[in-house]
Amino acid sequence: MRSTGIEMIRHYIDLSNEDTVDLNERYSMLLQQEKILLEKKDELEKQLAYIQHKKLDYEKELENK
Protein backbone atom coordinates (compact mmCIF):
# COMPACT_ATOMS: atom_id res chain seq x y z
CA MET A 1 0.00 0.00 0.00
CA ARG A 2 3.02 2.27 0.09
CA SER A 3 2.66 3.18 -3.56
CA THR A 4 -0.64 4.92 -2.87
CA GLY A 5 0.90 7.34 -0.43
CA ILE A 6 1.63 7.69 3.22
CA GLU A 7 -1.60 9.55 3.97
CA MET A 8 -3.72 6.66 2.72
CA ILE A 9 -1.70 4.23 4.85
CA ARG A 10 -2.18 6.40 7.93
CA HIS A 11 -5.89 6.71 7.25
CA TYR A 12 -6.22 2.94 6.78
CA ILE A 13 -4.35 2.28 10.04
CA ASP A 14 -6.48 4.84 11.85
CA LEU A 15 -9.61 3.10 10.62
CA SER A 16 -8.23 -0.26 11.70
CA ASN A 17 -7.53 1.02 15.21
CA GLU A 18 -10.93 2.61 15.80
CA ASP A 19 -13.50 0.85 17.95
CA THR A 20 -16.20 1.58 15.39
CA VAL A 21 -14.46 0.43 12.27
CA ASP A 22 -15.94 1.60 9.00
CA LEU A 23 -15.65 -1.63 7.04
CA ASN A 24 -17.15 -0.06 3.94
CA GLU A 25 -14.44 2.58 3.82
CA ARG A 26 -11.66 0.07 4.47
CA TYR A 27 -13.09 -2.23 1.80
CA SER A 28 -13.30 0.67 -0.65
CA MET A 29 -9.67 1.55 0.04
CA LEU A 30 -8.62 -2.03 -0.65
CA LEU A 31 -10.57 -2.04 -3.91
CA GLN A 32 -8.85 1.18 -4.93
CA GLN A 33 -5.44 -0.27 -4.06
CA GLU A 34 -6.24 -3.43 -6.01
CA LYS A 35 -7.16 -1.34 -9.08
CA ILE A 36 -3.90 0.62 -8.85
CA LEU A 37 -1.85 -2.56 -8.55
CA LEU A 38 -3.66 -4.28 -11.42
CA GLU A 39 -2.98 -1.27 -13.65
CA LYS A 40 0.70 -1.39 -12.69
CA LYS A 41 0.74 -5.15 -13.30
CA ASP A 42 -0.71 -4.67 -16.78
CA GLU A 43 1.91 -2.04 -17.60
CA LEU A 44 4.72 -4.23 -16.31
CA GLU A 45 3.43 -7.20 -18.31
CA LYS A 46 3.42 -5.07 -21.47
CA GLN A 47 6.97 -3.91 -20.81
CA LEU A 48 8.11 -7.46 -20.08
CA ALA A 49 6.51 -8.76 -23.29
CA TYR A 50 8.36 -6.09 -25.28
CA ILE A 51 11.68 -6.97 -23.64
CA GLN A 52 11.11 -10.68 -24.25
CA HIS A 53 10.30 -9.99 -27.89
CA LYS A 54 13.47 -7.92 -28.33
CA LYS A 55 15.49 -10.58 -26.51
CA LEU A 56 14.29 -13.21 -29.00
CA ASP A 57 15.24 -10.93 -31.89
CA TYR A 58 18.76 -10.57 -30.50
CA GLU A 59 19.07 -14.28 -29.83
CA LYS A 60 18.14 -15.01 -33.47
CA GLU A 61 20.71 -12.51 -34.69
CA LEU A 62 23.39 -13.97 -32.44
CA GLU A 63 22.64 -17.50 -33.68
CA ASN A 64 23.07 -16.38 -37.28
CA LYS A 65 26.59 -15.03 -36.68
Strands, helices and their partners?
Blueprint: H1 6-17, H2 23-63
Helix pairs in contact: 1-2
Q: What is the H/E string?
A: HH
- How many structurally independent domains? 1
| Number of separate strands | 0
Distance between the termini: 48 Å
The proportion of residues forming helix, as a percent range, comes to over 70%
Biggest sheet: strands, sense, closure? Answer: none
Q: In DSSP terms, counting alpha (H) and pi (I) runs of 4 or more, how many helices?
A: 2
- What's the shape? rod-shaped
**What's the alpha carbon Rg, rounded to whole Å?**
21 Å
Averaged pLDDT? 84
Derived structural class:
mainly alpha
Q: Could you list the spans in which at least 5 consecutive residues all have pLDDT below 50? A: none
Describe the structure.
It is a single chain. The chain is mostly helical. It has one domain. It has 2 helices and no strands. The longest helix has 41 residues, at 23-63. It is rod-shaped. The termini are far apart. The model has no long low-confidence stretch (mean pLDDT 84).
Salient structural properties:
65 residues; single chain; 0% strand; mainly alpha
Concise structural overview:
This protein has 65 residues and is mainly alpha-helical. It has one domain (2-63).
